[in-house]
Amino acid sequence: MTIQPILIDGRWRPADAEDTFQAENPATCQPFPDRYPVSRWSDCEAALAAAEAAFREMRTMSGDRIASFLETFATEIEQRSEALVQMAHQETGLPESPRLANVELPRTTNQLRQAAVAAAEGSWAMPTIDTSAGIRACFEPLGPVCVFGPNNFPFAFGSISGGDFAAAIAAGNPVIAKANPSHPGTTLLFAQAADQARKASGLPSGTLALLYRTSHADGQRLVADPRTGATGYTGSRTAGLKLKAAADAAGKPIYLELSSVNPVVILPGAIRERADSLADEFTTSCLMGAGQFCTNPGLVAMLAGEATEAFIRSLCDRFAAAPVGTLLSRGVQSGLSASIRTLTEAGARVLVGGSEGGGSGYSFGNTLLRVDGQPFLDAAATMQTEAFGNASLLVVAEDLDQLCHVLDCLEGNLTGCIYSDTAGSDDAVYPRVAAALRPRVGRLLNDKMPTGVAVSPAMNHGGPYPATGHPGFTAVGIPASLRRFAMLASYDNVRPDRLPACLQDRNPNGTMWRCIDGCWTQHDVS
Predict the structure, then answer these.
(1) Catalytic residue among 294, 404, 417, 502
(2) Which of 71, 76, 91, 257 is catalytic?
(3) Confidence of residue 409 (pLDDT cuts 50, 70, 90)
(4) Shortest CA distance to 93 belongs to which of 287, 285, 289, 234?
(5) DSSP code string of 273-342
(6) Cα–Cα distance between 314 and 349 in angstroms, integer?
(7) pTM
(8) 351 and 313 Cβ atoms separated by less than 8 Å
């Protein structure tokens, strides 16, 4: 039996452990032999002290040096791709190909390289110069960032490889990574690659730390510590809100991705026009990866009618015939089972699926539930319980007024979709539906399922609570994601040679965009 070490201050060392845990293979339900430590506060303290020391150097470090680390890390990942894919497949049950090797791993290295470009170019800091007032401002790093990774994206959202990590580092902050206990071995491999890249790039030893697990109390203490600059968290609403309460009490920023049912509205004209293709598209989206996407379409709203009833029957046939995927863990299976039970007790009716099993290892039958508009409205909060996995709730409204009332009752979500007739028969009702849905979602889609999240500067992977803890920020999309982990720093009447390079009269690289006296330009201050 091996107890894996933690990474603190550039050194792999035994943890001060109060306990150990083992990850499980979700396809076999059997534990892996390696054990991982549950760290005491002393490990958190050591990680914070090292990160604080690293921050003193990183806060004035050139973007080129940070970019070098991110580029080198991406290359290290590619050189270890086979081992990473195999380990993640074993720990999560996600397919090696195409999911891990051909989709998630290239996305991970791509966003690291996008972050490197942003760090080197510098426009993300939004340098702003008011020559008449003698005041200049820009975004600067704010201190050590704690990153809590989710179970469903071991690469692209991983605590020491994913978007939060890339954004925090690119903004000039050290990172304390807390692995997800579902895939600690995968996180360990990423941390080894990151540590090698850090050494090659000459970043401070405290730039990176890896802890596998702490007590809940120590996790809350970590996000509230005076040395912590901010926290990025993706995971369950229950755990996330406890961390948020601790961070809020200490006045510390915390960026949360918590839960989302991602409503899809399918208007009557779209069903009449292309019911079969819509049924295929929805089934693929909802069951992809056993439904374990934060943007999985978990609620579908439609208007009552014969065509809608036929469409629902076709969805049931497809769900019943589709293979049942493996869930990420025992906890995901039990959580999905509990959510389905909550929905049915509130009045939803199971049309297909609804019970555990049917696939390899931890699994749950492909599930569709149905509720009419008024029963949904009677228990609107409960009906929005997130059933994380291969399940979705169909809401059938009696008329447009009721459909819009359903949308008005929705909590905040990451995404919302409206499907309409391409020939225009739904155009008269679209504005009213969109007006109800738009304030409830971070990203609005037309005629497209929500499961794909492009790493684009225009992407918003965020939304109103409880999709995220703050509607003004995105977890995906560079450069905007970097500014979550930065503070706005203003310089008033500071001598020119004492200003940060990005605020001096000369543009430091000639490509950085700066706002000079109200105009965005790449020119020097004249």
Answers:
(1) 294
(2) 257
(3) very high
(4) 289
(5) HHHHHHHHHHHHHHHGGGG--TT---EEEEE-SHHHHHHHHHHHHHHHHSPPPPPS-HHHHHHHHHHHHH
(6) 17
(7) 0.95
(8) no
257 flagged as catalytic = yes
For residue 213, the SS3 value is strand
Question: What token pair was written down for 279?
Answer: 């049924």
Q: Which residue has the tokens 């025992």?
A: 330
Amino acid at 435: A
Q: The dihedral of CA 501, 505, 508, 509: what is its sign?
A: positive
Assess whether 386 carries a catalytic annotation.
no
What is the residue extent of each domain of the chain? Answer: 33-258+473-482, 263-446
Out of 1.10.3720.10, 3.10.20.600, 1.10.10.10, 3.40.605.10, the CATH code matching 33-258+473-482 is 3.40.605.10
Q: How confident is the model at residue 452 (pLDDT cuts 50, 70, 90)?
A: confident
Task: Please provide the size of the chain in residues.
Answer: 526
Three-state DSSP class for 480?
helix
Give the integer Cα–Cα distance in Å for 367 and 350: 7
Is the pLDDT score of 283 beyond 80? yes
228 or 2, which is more confident? 228
Sign of dihedral through CA atoms 286, 292, 293, 295?
A: positive
**CATH code that applies to domain 263-446:** 3.40.309.10
